[in-house]
């Protein structure tokens, strides 16, 4: 067992404090490419570029404490939209990100395995909770690790883990399986574990902001057995989520017509992006309808070329030949991407 | 030392999971008083009834991930507004509430003392972190307790703790002093410990929503030494706060003219409330410019009387003779309060 920082007094450990790089920060893009034409085309995230329409809010959303009844409404809407057994299996949070260290803490410090390649926040959360964290590609070989964290579908490569494998991993005695389903909204519902959380050995995380295109709202969910859900909700306290997030979440999660249209539009958008990437000679090695991962030897040079032309994509320090592309929002952005890719000379 | 739940495996303990009652939930008021005239006059919180004006947001506040540069701007504005040594001493969070269990966790499970009477979330946070929690009125008699949590000024009685006492409590070796300054904005700055956090044994919590009248935004701060601030920020992750909260916070915290006007208006509003309460024969036993605490033998009956007339105030299960009154927003609300109090017959 790893030495738990919190067992030795005041926590001055640095475990998990180093911030891994993330997409979506145009401040970083502008520092990297100070001469680039504005506005930047930001393809560095996997966020729906066609957001759910945000109407004007009642002033109550700001001037009142978020009301508990509305929180329960959002929990019920999330249970229905995601396929969780009930609202009591839902934890409403200000984004799924903030839940990661809290979920990792549901187990005492132990050996933890994160499926690789991985969204770096999974391993960081496990380290913050005091776990001894390893990564492996074949997560089924986790041995005696008690905490297993996977993203399904995976980010950035889009790998889907078989449901049977996940259910088997969940059944290890005394273990906990955390499945980050941040990009699950664009997948067939049958691969989600949302309906399988009642047993108490699984926590499924869902992101509202990515699929609904509203990451600035900060809204996300944990789906898990009621005792664990109560524990997580207790850690978040009585007003975990803002009034605007509750108002939009209640409406959007119940808007099945919009959800269906968005799925189709994203699939079409991903196909358009594929055509552009393929025409530019890039190898698409994975992805979901919210992003595509390409491999290319000259990826670093291509990143620079794109950035100087005002197109910001995602790099991966550990995988220098990979680039991830989010979906361009419109014909103008697609046209600029096409043109800039065509002018790239890798020699 | 208390047995730490997290040291014995999966956390199924119920410690800290029971939700104490809170003000501000009109769903509760309507269930208690189904026949009351609407709209309710909500005096059950200590929130400024004259909120900072919320302009329309740029769509970016919702459709983009909150930008790190804006987070740093808000941290700098908070450091200046509250008097913390620098932006590196500031943790930006979605409300100060969510910080309480994280702050309590900065110490390994030990004996914790919460100053009584207390906002119940302080003791709940300490219990969630695995501490052995006691309460005492004379917190200077804390003995060997390592974690001390106080609210200053205190809620609900408005007691101000002497700065010298707090600094002495902070200097205990290996200890941590947490000062919840949720209602400090309406006090003389000299009683705040915001400027004294560099030593690393103090965490000051500040609430944005109460003074600025925007609790639905979810914005709050921890002020502490940079190593602890980094630890807390790491637990919150890269996007702790919503885009709207960052946009409003950056503007409001720097708006010294509004802040000055609000302080004066609240002081005047509290004096008007005092006049009404005194005329009704109530004993004001404490408070701040954001709320008043009264004592009356027939408090339970008065609560019912007010509630049936559509005026919702705050009760305290452990102190059945206490009622807390927030500030009525306008002459109409003051008039109704005056009338309803006058019609109360305690016999």
Using CB atoms under 8 Å apart, which protein chain pair has the greatest interface? A-B, 73 and 73 residues
Helix fraction bin of chain A: 25-40%
* Main sheet properties of chain A: 7 strands, mixed
Order of helices and strands of chain A: HEHHEHEHEEHEEHEHHHEEHEEEH
Global outline of chain A: globular
Contiguous low-pLDDT stretches of chain A (5 residues minimum) are 1-9
Q: Can you tell me about this structure?
A:
- The structure is a homodimer of 347-residue chains.
- Helices cover 35% and strands 16% of the residues of chain A.
- Chain A is of the alpha/beta class.
- Chain A has a 7-stranded mixed beta sheet with strand order 2-8-7-6-5-3-4, sandwiched between helices. In chain A, strands 9-10-13-12 form a 4-stranded antiparallel beta sheet, covered by helices on one side.
- Mean pLDDT of chain A is 93; it is low at 1-9.
Describe the structure concisely.
The structure is a homodimer. The first copy, chain A, has twelve helices and 13 strands.
Question: Which secondary structure elements does this structure contain, and how are they paired or packed?
Answer:
Two copies of one chain form a homodimer.
Chain A: H1 26-32, E1 41-42, H2 60-63, H3 68-82, E2 90-93, H4 99-104, E3 111-115, H5 120-128, E4 132-136, E5 147-151, H6 163-170, E6 176-180, E7 202-207, H7 209-212, E8 220-224, H8 226-236, H9 243-253, H10 256-279, E9 283-288, E10 291-295, H11 299-308, E11 311-312, E12 314-315, E13 322-326, H12 331-342
Parallel strand pairs in A: 1-11, 3-4, 3-5, 5-6, 6-7
Antiparallel strand pairs in A: 2-8, 7-8, 9-10, 10-13, 12-13
């Amino acid at each position: 067992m790893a030495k738990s920082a919190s067992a030795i007094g005041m926590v001055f450990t640095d475990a998990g404090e180093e911030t891994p790089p993330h997409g979506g920060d145009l401040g970083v893009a502008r520092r990297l490419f100070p001469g680039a034409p504005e506005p930047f085309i930001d393809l560095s995230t996997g966020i729906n570029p066609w957001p759910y329409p945000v109407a004007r809010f009642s002033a109550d959303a700001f001037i009142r404490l978020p009301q508990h009844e509305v929180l329960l409404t959002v929990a019920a809407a999330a249970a229905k939209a995601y396929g969780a057994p009930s609202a009591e299996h839902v934890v409403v949070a200000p984004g799924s990100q903030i839940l990661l260290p809290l979920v990792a803490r549901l187990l005492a410090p132990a050996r933890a395995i994160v499926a690789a390649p991985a969204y770096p926040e999974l391993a960081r959360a496990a380290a913050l909770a005091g776990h001894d964290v390893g990564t492996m590609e074949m997560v089924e070989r986790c041995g005696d690790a008690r905490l297993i964290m996977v993203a399904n579908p995976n980010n950035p490569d889009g790998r889907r883990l078989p449901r049977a494998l996940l259910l088997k991993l969940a059944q290890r005695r005394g273990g906990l399986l955390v499945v980050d389903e941040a990009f699950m909204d664009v997948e067939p519902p049958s691969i989600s574990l949302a309906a399988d959380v009642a047993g108490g050995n699984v926590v499924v995380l869902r992101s509202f902001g990515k699929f609904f295109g509203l990451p600035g709202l900060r809204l996300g969910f944990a789906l898990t057995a009621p005792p664990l859900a109560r524990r997580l909700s207790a850690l978040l306290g009585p007003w975990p989520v803002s009034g605007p997030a509750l108002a939009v979440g209640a409406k959007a999660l119940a808007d099945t017509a919009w959800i269906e249209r968005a799925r189709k539009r994203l699939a079409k958008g991903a196909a358009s992006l594929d055509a552009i990437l393929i025409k530019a000679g890039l190898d698409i090695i994975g992805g979901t309808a919210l992003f595509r991962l390409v491999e290319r030897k000259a990826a670093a040079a291509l990143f620079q070329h794109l950035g100087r032309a005002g197109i910001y994509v995602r790099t991966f320090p550990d995988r220098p030949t990979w680039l991830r592309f989010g979906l361009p929002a419109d014909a103008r952005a697609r046209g600029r991407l096409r043109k800039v890719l065509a002018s790239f000379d890798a020699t």
